[in-house]
Batch of 3 targets.
Target 1
Amino acid sequence: MNKKDVKKIQHWLHHRCMLSSEWPFSAELLLQSKQKQLVHSEPVLVYKKGIWKCVRCGNDKPSLFYSHFCYHCETTCTYCRHCIQMGKASSCKQFLVWTGDSLQYKRKETTCQWEGELSLYQKKASNQLVVAVEQRNQAHLIWAVCGAGKTEILFPMIEKSIELGFRIGIATPRTDVVKELSPRLKYAFPTVSQASLYGGSRDKNPLAQLVLATTHQLIRYSHAFDVLVIDEVDAFPYTYDASLQYASMRAKKPQATTIFLSATPSVKLRNTSNLIVTKIPRRFHGKPIPLPAFQWIGNWNRHLQKGTLPAKMMRWIQLHTDKPRLIFFPSIQTLKTCSMILNELELDHGSVYSEAPNRHPVIQAFKQKRLSLLLTTTILERGVTVENLQVAVLGAEQPIFDEACLVQIAGRVGRKQEFPDGDILYWHYGITASMLKAKHHIDKMNKEGML
């Protein structure tokens, strides 16, 4: 084993947890790495007191493990079903961890290329994040309204982290958000090594100093980040998946600074002990978030089943033909039914949902104004910015539209300084507590922002 071999193994494995089946080099090189104590292996699944646990994702639910005859180990083998999308973690495989010399990022001056100016609220939050990075081992929540400019608030903190030789991880729940933020970060910090990671991404720089990733990708990291930012901390799947919270805790270093970003943080998070909370109740352009209007639309589902659209819905679609329109649906089936009706009426539109094969090209067409009407599920409730956008929610009374979701959807409107207003309609068949809470939430933040 020569220095070149050591360097390429370090490059691949440093601060990461990889399965033995993912080892890209020769078996002989793996053996030599272990003998020289450069690589340590440990079971990826452990069995204790009759319970299996996956070391990679933290899963210990019996229903999420499965045993079968394995052709690799030629005996009965158990694997974790919970993190199967990240590669098969089974009882016959090992976790590989780098135990050689740790890489240090050089302290260096870097200039953020973003030329905008932070508002007073943004500056206050940004300054506090810089202090948090300098002091280390802090947990900080930025509670900011939709459109407050959370990404820009991070820029001075990133600049300070690079200056100190720190590694930064920014995790967000959805691939769409990674794709949205990636070019903005690369423009702001062109001299900083960066990686944007999500399922199917081709960006494979494992030693990047600034890592933007979906929360699922954190499962591959161990004690990697001096600063870890969890964007949209209240969003699915992070809030509802304990393994993602487990992975984020393991991905950061023991003395790391943790930063949470959210427009709708849970009461539990806000009341966390030793958590510093900074509120930004005002958008960067100083205008209030448009308040949602409740519009009774009757039994909209019956209309769809009969192959027609409710009259109010049809009028709204025709009213704003010169503006981008986004309609949220409570289910994929409801969306597809509406899409079929629009096709019969020869109304040009696009549709996006989690399983849609052409999702990303359709979203790009909408952003670039090549498409003016887009139907979506809650998959676009966050992270999408389109100027002069008009928004409506069909079936706002449905359980999937809780307070946080409705607040986020309303936050799509008026995000651009040139177009601070716009329609946000909750079409309903009965007003719910979630609808009322969402409107109250927005109104309260608007009033705080005007003080």
Target 2
Amino acid sequence: MRIGVLTGGGDCPGLNAVIRAIVRKTTLDRGAEVFGFYDAWDGVMEQRGVMLDDASVRGTLPRGGTILGTRRGSPLETSDGVDRVKRSLADLAIDALVVIGGNGSLTVGSILSEQHGLPIVGVPKTIDNDVVGTDATFGFNTAVQIATDAIDRLHTTAESHDRVMVIEVMGRDAGWIALHAGMAGGATAILVPEVAFDINKLSDVVAHRHDRGRYASVVVVAEGAKPLSGLGSDGLILPDRQYDLYGRERLGDIAHVIAPALSARTGYDSRVVQLGYVQRGGTPTSYDRVLATRFGLAAVDAVRDRAFGQMVVLHGDRIERESMMVTSGKMRTIDLALFNDVANTFFG
């Protein structure tokens, strides 16, 4: 048996732990092999990759990023993409392909499996924690820890200068990182994409806090957060929308809109910190290493069971399987009951 593996989409702490687990478990069987494709689907279509063995994955458990490289994009974007994938798997004698990716990569994997009969198993990953069908994705815990550490540090400098710190975190259209890091870091307020914010109410919260003699405010905002009355409302000056090569809106910079609005409304100095790609890099937490390892081990079991079109997922504390089709066009959003409880209890 020869298993192919690729990492697709944005990089994420824990990817190497999955690859390592797949290699170690697969090669326990005499004659079984793992072939790693470079640069996601590009590597599959171009037949670029490398045979992986124990030596290949030695020392990779604590490493961030992916030893295979990653790209966005899909074989479905070109007229001959699917045929090239089929030819590659046949030429390289790949019996099954493990796709480690987020919503986009898993959707592509499900289409190739369900509509074109390719032997594909999925492993969900993303720091955004927004994949439907699983209770958690590896990478999320690391991103939250990095953001929490930054919030803790920024509290002290904000307090020293009686400033408002507006901290922008990743997450795209889901507020998981903002909510969890904001809770853990004791944020004054948390803004998430799932709940449109009112800049005037936010300003009142900040002003009331400072007027009571409590130094500093820390506002944690998800990059996809939007104002209550729509973009451009309440006098907010928003940048023009931009899109990447794959048609996805480029998010970010909302903190640069919020901070001057808070200063204008409250009279308090407001500063912006965008954590950016640091949330995706570096050493994964122990939780993410364990979850990623469990996913990798379970992916090999799924291949052996010929559970193609399925992905391994976390339900409670159990690793189970779900159809990759559940990810198509969907996104897992935050628990609004928890958000409202946190907002009512701590904001202000």
Target 3
Amino acid sequence: MEDAFKIFTNELDREFGFRFSRSGGPGGQHVNKVNTKVELRFAVKASLVLTEEQKQILISNLAKQITQEGELIIISQGTRSQLKNKSEAVVKFYEIINKALKPRKKRKTKSISKAAKEKRLKDKKELSEKKERRKF
């Protein structure tokens, strides 16, 4: 499974592109001169690595993060280094993809135990009796 994931990630690495621009935040003159902000762009619909089922899962689970053109855009501008921001964006990308493709666990409905039911009814009866005593 882990080897298959490495192949999967290596193939996906070829499918996304980067855009660089000037980053905001602290840094003074350095920030105004250097393009350190990184935008990782991945065209979900055009992917050759992902199956149609995986594409549909990504589109439905990441609907708010995917543009109208079908691109998933991840921005990283935390550091003053373009290389660090680039690697952070790639890590974020794989975390988001893995989380979206991970199957959700179905909730197991559990019945209330007999003891819990009895305790609830006992407490309810005691409260009812307490309120009844207040009337007289």
